[in-house]
Amino acid sequence: MTALSPPDAPVDAKIAQLLRSQRDFFATGETQSIEFRRQQLIRLKAAILERQTEIVDAVRADLGRPEYEGYFEIGVLDELTYVLKRFARWAQPRRVGLPLVQLPGSAWVQPEPLGVVLIIGPWNYPFQLVMSPLMGAIAAGNCALIKPSEIAPATSQVVAELVSATFPPHYVAVVEGGVETAQTLLKQKFDHIFFTGGTRIGQIVMAAAAQQLTPVTLELGGKSPCIVDRDINVEVAAKRIVWGKFVNAGQTCVAPDYLLVHEDIKAALLVALQKALQDFFGDQPAQSPDLARIVSNRQFDRLTALMANESVLVGGDTNRASRYIAPTLLDEVSWEAPIMQEEIFGPILPIMSYRDIETAIAQINARPKPLALYLFSRNQALQARMLSATSSGGVCLNDVFLQVAIWGLPFGGVDDSGIGAYHGKASFETFSHCKSVLKKPFWFDLAWRYAPYANKLGFLKKVIGMS
Ligand code: NAD
């Protein structure tokens, strides 16, 4: 932990002191300067670039992630470049028109930083998912405290080292630790809490935030459906699905959780999915250098229990010692099966079929709103129907996963899959308060609003649009 107090001080005293120092620093107004923010974003970019190998190695140590997929974490640089180019414009006051009756005067919306924000991260993309909100917090002019996930300890350490080497703790600091540390943090008063993790823990975070009336952004998970219509390029669809599902061994919040496939295309799709698996990972996926591992024994046990009574079409092999689960396809899973009751978050893909799309839509809508929804279809009427008939954090048509890397698209869930959004400008807005300002001159002052009101009601009725 980056701390100002003596190393043997109790954690809550250290946290309280850290927070006080951030509040004092924020109060100096230094973070308000656009140039200051720009310099910090540039420092962050340089620090990530300099430590890219350490970051990739840490993610490999935590998740057995292949180097290629490790570089997804460094993908925050792309967003950083996007933000650096634009954030000064986002920070400008935005003029708003006045109604005639309010003239003369001027009105505008002026973004201001919130203050000191808390960022709590998950283990699955343990670097990126704290750095991406951090850049939004910095761009908007805040101080930040980060608590990375203890389940990815190597990455947590790299995050702590990078931050302490780049920023003074009274500006940005990392507090490492597990649930207890998170709960100590949540007892403090922050100006915003940005949480990424599971829905159940999201409820705990929101309840704690409510005690302090702290606004929250909750980036949660869910079961993201992937609907596959008849009118597709089967090979391309299969490759995209297999990639998006099995990247990071399925431990991705926007991974397609299950497939709903039109009966007429199912046989062909199954063949194509198996071919894609074979092409990507070979005969013995356990030997493939391109498959990540399950993060913990707890997750491994949960996943193996979920597929225990299902019909395995491909895969199913497991090895607890190496926390390996083969990329697995499960056929004809029922809606009532245990695996359909919770987010899978692992390399297991249940496949179900449908004949009538309206029945499929009803099944999707009977469940909590997911973080992502995928539809593979060339049929534009079907695409439009799916967009209007279902609700999800985001949608990607004819591909999976990639919607998260379009920085102009806000990324977030809806209902059970989250509250609020971030990425690019959405991050800037999440970490800003949009202050409304009205400015009036003294030289013009109509008497119609002042008492005595005699003979003025007619004019008021006109003003409020009644006549
Ligand atoms: P998690 O909710 O278990 O943990 C997230 C963070 O919360 C960790 O830092 C952890 O220390 C802390 N935490 C855990 N228990 C806590 C408690 N009782 N009180 C306070 N803090 C607590 O989530 P996870 O297992 O790290 O991540 C997996 C989940 O995150 C999945 O559901 C996934 O879909 C979701 N996720 C969502 C996104 C997104 O952007 N929407 C991204 C990645 C992961």
Instruction: Give the tally of β-strands.
Output: 18
Structural class: alpha/beta
Can you give the helix content as a percent range? 40-55%
CATH top level of the largest domain is: Alpha Beta
Task: Tell me the span between the first and last alpha carbons.
Answer: 65 Å
User: What's the structural domain tally?
Assistant: 2
* Overall pLDDT level: 96
Tell me the number of helical segments per DSSP (H or I, 4 or more residues long).
16
Largest sheet: 7 strands, mixed
Instruction: Output the radius of gyration.
Output: 25 Å
**Strands of the biggest beta sheet: in what spatial order?**
10-13-14-9-8-15-16
The CATH homologous superfamily name of the largest domain equals Aldehyde Dehydrogenase, Chain A, domain 1
Shape: globular
CATH topology of the largest domain: Aldehyde Dehydrogenase, Chain A, domain 1
- Percent of residues in beta strands? 15-25%
Question: Residue ranges: pLDDT <50 for 5 or more in a row?
Answer: none
At CATH's second level, what is the architecture of the largest domain?
A: 3-Layer(aba) Sandwich
